[in-house]
Amino acid sequence: MKIVPLFRAALLVSAVSLIPATTAGLAAVDARSSAQFERLATVYQLVKLRYVEKADDAKLEEGAIDGMLASLDPHSSYLSGATMQRLNTMIDGNYSGLGLSVVMDDGAVKVVSPMRGSPAATAGIKAGDYITHLDGKLIYGGDLDDAVAQMRGEAGSKIRLTIFRAGRDQPFDVTVTRGVIQLEPVTWELKDNIGVITVNEFSHDVGKDVNKAITDLKAKSGGKLEGLVLDLRENPGGELEEAVGLSDLFLTKGDIVSQRGRDSSEDEYFKAESMFPGDMAKGLPLVVLIDSGSASASEIVAGALQDQHRALIMGERSFGKGSVQSLFFLDRSRTSAVKITTARYYTPSGRSVQEGGIDPDIRVPQLSDPDAARRSELSVRESDLRHHLVNEASLDDKKLENDRQADPRFKMTPDQLKTKGIKDFQLYYALETLHRTAAGVPVKRK
Q1: Catalytic machinery residues
Q2: Digit-coded pLDDT (tens) for 41-77
Q3: Residue 190 bridge partners (DSSP)
C-alpha cells in the first residue's frame, strides 16, 4: 500500500537535511517566541496534572508537532515510527500489497490512484473510490495506518474491499489478490510508429530511463518514429532533480523551473542543457497527457514544455501543487523527520501553478470511463485542501471550474468507444493527433 502524502512519489523534495542541535537562527526564533512557548508549556502542564488519565510524554510531544505542522499547509507533516518505516519500504522499491495510493479524507480511506498494472488496477479500483470495509469490517473513522496494515499481506492472499464510487447508487465489493509490487517509474511501448512513454513517478534516474525509452523506440520503429506521447496522468510527482532532467531531455535553451522561498537569496533557477545536451527527440512532435492526478514534478515538466512550446499539453487540468517541500531529519538515526514547505515554484514564463494547475492546450475528457464525468465533479485538487497556500495571482474560482464543463466536441459514449475497441480515449486522441500531424494536418492550440 502506497500512502501518497508520506512517500517521495508524492513529494517535491528540494533538500534533505539533519537539523543541528543549536543554531543562531533557532536561538533567535526562540528568543522572539518565548511568550508563545510559555503558553504551550502551560497547556502541557495542565494536561499532565488534570487529564482524566495519565498522559504519555512522547504522545503529547508528537501531537504538538503534528498540530503545529498541520496548521501550516496540507504538505507539511511529521514523520516517525510506522510512517518512516513505510517511507523506507517504498524507497527500497518493492513490497507486497495492492498497489494503491490512498489518503484519509474526512475519516474515509480514499484512493488517489492505483498503480498501473497493479493488482488493484487489474481488479478495477479507480481514482476517487472510497474504501469503506475490508473483509466486511468497517474502517470508516479509523486509523489510516491500521487500514494500510490490513491491506498489506503475502502475495497470493486475497482481501475483499467494499467500494463507494461516485456515479454508482450502491456500494459494491471487489476481491483483490495481493501481489509483489515492483515499482516501475517508467514504461514504454510502440503503437503504430508512435512511442508512448508512461512516467508513473519521479524517482531516481527517471530522466535516464526516458532517454533510454526514446532510443529503444527509435530502434523498434526502424527509424520511422512519428512522434511521442509522454503520459503523466495520475503521476503525483517526486524528485525535483528528475523533473528538471526529464524536461531537459526535450529543451535546448531557457529556464525549466524556478523556486522562490521567503528569502530571495535562496531563490534557484534551473535551466535547459544542465543535465542532457540537445533535444533527444529532435524533430519529433510531442504530446504530454495530464489529468487531475498530475501533480508537483509532473506539473513542472508540463509547464516547462508548454511555456517553451515544445509539446502539446492534452487531457485535463492538473492538480495544482506549486510548492516545494524539504525533509529535515530530527536525529542522526533518521527515525523521525519533519517535511516543511520551503518554497513555491514557477514555470519559465513566471506562472505559479499553485491552486490553478496546468491548463491543457487541448482539453480531452476520459470518455472511455463511464464514471469519469461524475468523478471529475467530485475530484479533489490542491485548491480543495484545507490550509492550502493561496496563489499570489488571486485566481478566479469560477475559471478553475471551466474544465468541468462538457465539451460539445466529445459526445461518444463509453459503450460506443468499447465497440470500437477504444479503452483509453485520452491516449487514443493523443495518438490520432500525432498521426494527423505526421500527415501534415496542422493542430491548433486553444
Answers
A1: 296, 307, 321
A2: 899 999 999 999 999 998 899 889 988 888 888 788 8
A3: 195
Residues in Cβ contact with 260 at an 8 Å cutoff, skipping those fewer than 6 apart = 267, 343, 344, 345, 346
Kindly provide the residue ranges of all beta strands, DSSP E only, lying in 208-347, ordered along the sequence: 227-231, 255-260, 268-271, 286-290, 312-315, 323-329, 336-346
Q: How far apart are CA 124 and CA 146, in angstroms?
A: 23
Query: What does the DSSP 8-state code read for residue 407?
Result: P
Which DSSP state fits 358? P
Contact criterion met (CB below 8 Å) for 435 and 226? yes
Distances 351 to 162, 286, 326, 346 between C-alpha atoms, Å: 41, 22, 21, 5
Instruction: Enter the DSSP assignment of 356.
Output: T
The amino acid at residue 372 is A
Does the domain at 186-329+340-438 match CATH 3.90.226.10? Answer given as yes
Sorted by where each begins, the domain ranges of the chain are 94-182, 186-329+340-438
Dihedral of CA atoms 432, 434, 436, 439 in degrees, nearest 10, equals -140
Cell numbers at 212, concatenated: 533510454
How long is the chain? Answer: 446
Query: What cell does 427 get?
Result: 491516449
| 8 Å CB contact between 343 and 259 | yes
Are the CB atoms for 84 and 336 separated by under 8 Å? yes
| Pairing label, strands 94-97, 108-114 | unpaired
| Contact (Cβ atoms closer than 8 angstroms) between residue 63 and residue 56 | no
CA angle (436, 437, 441) in 5-degree steps: 70
Q: Where are the beta strands (DSSP E) in 1-152?
A: 2-3, 13-18, 77-80, 94-97, 100-105, 108-114, 130-134, 137-138
In sequence order, what are the residues at sequence separation of 6 or more whose Cβ sits closer than 8 angstroms to the Cβ of residue 79?
6, 87, 327, 336, 337, 338, 339
Distance CA 121, CA 155 (A): 16
Which pLDDT belongs to residue 355?
72
Cβ atoms of 302 and 315 within 8 Å: the answer is: no
- The class level of CATH for 94-182 reads mainly beta
Residue 11: which pLDDT band, with cuts at 50, 70 and 90? very low
